[in-house]
Amino acid sequence: MFRLITRTHAGALALSVLLLAPAFGSLTAQAQGSERAADEQLAEVVVTARRREETLQDVPLAVSAFSSAALEQVGASDIAELAQFVPSVTLEPSRATNSTLTAFIRGVGQQDPLAGFEQGVALYVDDVYIARPQGALLDIFDIERVEILRGPQGTLYGRNAVGGAIKYVTRRLSDRFEAQLKGAVGTYGQLDGVGKIALPLGDSVRFGATVASLNRDGYGDNLTTGGDNYNKDVLAGRVSLEFLPSDSLFVRLTADYTDDKSDPVAGHRVNPAVVSMLPVLDDVRDTRAGASINASTAGIGGNNQVKSKGVHATIEWQLNDAVMLKSISAYREDYTESVIDFDSLAVDDFDAPVIYDNDQLSQELQLQYSGERLDAVVGLYYLDASASNDFDVVLGQTGRLLFRTPLTAYTGGTVDTEAWSAFADASYKVNDRFSLGVGGRYTRDKRSADIFRANYLGVGGSPFFGNSNAIFLAATSDFEASRTFSDFSPRVVAAYEFSPNLNTYISYSRGFKAGSFDPRGANFSTPEVVRGYEPEILDSYEIGLKSTFLDGRARANLALFYSDYKDMQIPGSIPIDSNNDGINDGFVGAVTNAGQSTIQGIELESEFRVTPAFTIQANLSALDPKIDEWIVNGVNVADQRRIQNTPKLMASLGFNVGVPVGPGLLNMNANWSHKGSIVQFEVPVPAIDQEAYNLLNASVVWLSDDGRLTAGLYGKNLTNEDYKTAGYNFPTLGLENNITVFYGAPRTVTLSVGYRWQ
Q1: Residue 395 contacts by C-beta under 8 Å, 6 or more apart in sequence?
Q2: DSSP class of residue 262?
Q3: Distances in Å between the alpha carbon of 279 and those of 226, 345, 395, 688?
Q4: Which one of 174, 544, 563, 704 has the largest count of C-beta atoms within 10 Å of its C-beta?
Q5: Which helix (DSSP H) or strand (DSSP E) does residue 101 occupy?
Q6: How crowded is residue 262: how many other Cβ atoms within 10 Å of its Cβ?
Q7: In the chain, count of helices (H) and strands (E)?
Q8: What percent of the chain has pLDDT over 70?
Q9: What is the pLDDT of residue 24?
Q10: Pick from 453, 412, 452, 408: nearest CA to 298
């Protein structure tokens, strides 16, 4: 079953275990370093991975949890940074974006954020499923905790997630007045401010509000526009009302809004420009991109902005000590105008103005039962979502070469989703040590698509983007299509408690994701896009061990899994020659179902409190991701394909020391993370793929004894590592050999100060 432990992986695992006396782990309880406690035991970590409060060690799932205090200790600014500490997880900004999330867990995820293409990793904010990746790279400023669940999730949650789930949980309001201000300054002109208030309005009503302004200059410069590259300009807010009319009824109403006006992000050219004759820039975060001021993006005014907002209502009615009814109602929408400069040059060789427009309405009903031996949840879920993308592919130099005016390929695609599901999950304690869990989910998804593509000539792009003088050449796609997909996904888990400090489990679960239609498909050249692509199914088998030892001073959690992945959905973009003149004049979307893949691995998390003041944490994952069958023209090309964004080896090691300083506690933290080599797409492209690399971070945080005043100094990527997070590979589109790469943040230093009134 688990053939992945090669000599390299086994050596890394054995070395790690020997060095840290089997006490590796996550950051989950790191927040305890900010409390003065004589108790040397690690604190219990409470999670709600199974829709009820349980300790981390009792949950028969591979789950990592981070409290708000733990995240403040390391200075995590957004959820992407959590990937440094969680095994088998990759979280990154999607290419050419600041706030679109690319997420992979255990080899499951998607690199390309297509409209209507649901991600393999589900994101929940207060139990509300976020259907689209745009605006999903959430900043951390108003949370209680974040949980990351690895493996298929479907019998407990609103949407069936193939690879895993990320739960972003905001805190409930206090029954007394609280207010907090926090400010931060740092390198690259960082200037952040967060304000919070919780205000009781009588005995049964509470009001809360949070406002965050997050700002930073670019890590690089735009040498053409004089602007920034990789800057940040985000304004976000959240308001909440909570009603407690009785001890058995709780109602929460929440509204949130985020406005990201960061400048366009352009990649680093890896090759000199062929026509412009410009050399490769020395600084990998600088750019010559001019799309934002070119006529190619005049239809959106060169604007780059993401606006997202939503409202949701949660009602919890405790019928008696054992039964609770819960309703989660939500509406969300986001709108994006984006400038993509594929060539990263001042000329309009390959530019694209892009508009994403998404909305979703969801309703979930749950019945939760908690008895002496039986715990269960039964639920119904409904989702009505619409996603569209409209973009011009402007080939300025190619068009002027062929037609003496820019050539534009317009694509407009809308994908609607109407889905409902019924799910149930129950865990029964056969005796004091053995429990058996079973679950199932029936899902029915209807996908409808309306797609149009056409080529135009003229300066200013297509008519959709305001160019009424555009000359129509020919349509390359025009179709409407609809398909319905259904599935039943089971889950079975058996757990045995050898002792109060040693729990084991073995489980099987199935993940399902419906098929759909590529909103960029061209049915004139590739008629099969009208049929859409097929669903993907993942069968996961897992064995886990959760242990606490050394009188409660250490814990170690181990998970071994094997995934049988069928019809993996892999989106991609293929250059096309629409008029057969030998020159590529656009690209089409192509979602491929890779027939068979297997992903297996071992994950280790643990924590060791060496002394009351000194704690060690570490993680390790070793994976064997493999595509076994990928048929192209009747030939299996699996040996030429790879699974994206899935390093074979990941590891992290952290230390935390807390010492009394004045009327408070000073926590000193250092953490190191290692990520093995990855490919960005299914076919290796050395120019944009990333070799193995390491990141080193450190922080010093002081918290007053009364919890009111905090001050922190954070250093990230202290070795100033240049590491790739995404890339574009279009050497035959345009004339400039357009291969560009996007990079993670360089070395940064941040100083923060916060004060709480209560």
Answers
A1: 349, 350, 406, 407, 408, 409, 585, 586, 733, 734
A2: P
A3: 19, 11, 21, 18
A4: 563
A5: strand 101-105
A6: 21
A7: 3, 39
A8: 94
A9: 35
A10: 408
| C-alpha distance from residue 443 to each of 484, 488, 567 (Å) | 10, 6, 18
Q: pLDDT averaged over the chain?
A: 91
CA distance 395 to 247: 64
Judging by beta carbons within 10 Å of its beta carbon (0-12, 13-18, 19+), is residue 708 exposed, middle or buried? middle
Length of the chain equals 758
Dihedral in degrees, nearest 10, Cα atoms 197, 203, 204, 208: 0
Q: Is the pLDDT of residue 48 over 90?
A: no
**CA distance readout (Å), 58 to 49, 52, 61, 557, 619:** 11, 12, 9, 11, 19
Q: What digits encode the pLDDT tens for the residues 321-371?
A: 999 999 999 999 999 999 999 999 999 999 999 999 999 999 999 999 999
Dihedral over Cα of 335, 364, 127, 201: its sign: positive
Place of tokens 């093995």: 676
Please answer whether residues 196 and 239 qualify as being in contact, where contact means their C-beta atoms are separated by less than 8 angstroms: no
Assess contact for 386 and 422: CB atoms under 8 A.
no
Report pLDDT for 39.
Answer: 57
Which residue is listed with tokens 């402007």?
394
* The token pair that represents 518 in the structure block: 């590529």
Q: How far is CA 431 from the centre of its chain?
A: 39
For residue 387, count other CB atoms closer than 10 A to its CB.
25
Measured distance CA(691)–CA(693) in Å, rounded: 6
Q: For residues 326, 443, 136 and 601, what is the CA-based torsion angle, rounded to 10 degrees?
A: 110
At residue 542, what is the residue type? E
Q: Is the separation of the CB atoms in 79 and 91 below 8 Å?
A: yes
Sorted by sequence, the CB contacts under 8 Å of residue 601 that are 6+ apart come out as 4, 88, 106, 560, 561, 621, 622, 623, 624
pLDDT at residue 36 above 60?
no
> What order of strands is seen across the sheet that includes strand 164-169?
62-67, 145-150, 164-169, 121-125, 128-130
What does each C-alpha distance from 368 to 57, 122, 432 come to in angstroms?
21, 22, 22
527 Cβ contact list (under 8 Å, min separation 6): none
Instruction: Please tell me the distance from the alpha carbon of residue 675 to that of residue 661, in angstroms, as a whole number.
Output: 35
Please name each of the domains of the chain with its CATH number.
Answer: 7-757 (2.40.170.20)
Residue among 694, 692, 689 at smallest CA distance from 729: 689
The total of other beta-carbon atoms located within 10 Å of residue 162's CB is 31
Instruction: Report residue 215 as tokens.
Output: 């700002």
Q: For residue 446, how many other CB atoms are within 10 A of its CB?
A: 15
Residue 528's CB: how many other CB atoms inside 10 A? 10
Q: How far apart are CA 502 and CA 518, in angstroms?
A: 48
**For residue 610, how far is the Cα from the chain centroid?**
33
Q: Specify whether the CB–CB gap between 227 and 263 falls below 8 A.
A: yes
Tokens 């919780």 -> residue? 198
Residue in the block written with tokens 């989702």: 383
Which residues are bridge partners to 334 per DSSP? 308, 358
- H-assigned helices in 530-596: none
Q: Which residue has the tokens 């964004």?
A: 645
Whether the CB-CB separation of 421 and 380 falls below 8 Å is answered with yes
Tokens (6 digits) for 441: 């989910």
- The answer to whether 628 and 598 have CB atoms below 8 angstroms apart is yes
Q: Do residues 532 and 521 touch, judged by C-beta distance below 8 A? A: no
- pLDDT tops 80 at residue 437: yes
Any idea what DSSP says for residue 157? S
Residue 378's Cβ-count burial label (10 Å; 0-12, 13-18, 19+) is middle
DSSP result, 173-216: PPSS-EEEEEEEEETTTEEEEEEEEEEE-SSSEEEEEEEEEEEE
